[in-house]
Amino acid sequence: MGLRSKLLVCATLECESKEEMMASMEKAKGEGADLVELCIDSMSFSHISEVEHLLKRRTLPSIVSFRLKVS
C-alpha cells in the first residue's frame, strides 16, 4: 500500500461568494482533494440561507469553519 491510501487531502477554500466557493470546490475535486474546508468567514453573504444552499450543493465532504476577526 502506498502513502496515498493512508491519508486524505483537504483543500481550504476562502471565497467571497457561494458561486466562487462552488467553482473552487469543483476545481479542488478535479485536482484530487478528498474533502474541503469551507471558510465561511471569507464570504460576503446577506442571509444564512446562502450558506445553507452551499452546504446542500457541496460535492465533497466538508469541514465548515468560521473564524472571528480580532481587531
Automatic annotation (TrEMBL):
UniProt-listed GO biological process terms: chorismate biosynthetic process; shikimate metabolic process
GO MF annotations, alphabetized: 3-dehydroquinate dehydratase activity; shikimate 3-dehydrogenase (NADP+) activity
Database matches in Pfam families: DHquinase_I (PF01487)
Transmembrane annotation, as ranges: none
PANTHER family membership: BIFUNCTIONAL 3-DEHYDROQUINATE DEHYDRATASE_SHIKIMATE DEHYDROGENASE, CHLOROPLASTIC-LIKE ISOFORM X1, SHIKIMATE DEHYDROGENASE
Protein name: Uncharacterized protein
Organism: Escallonia herrerae
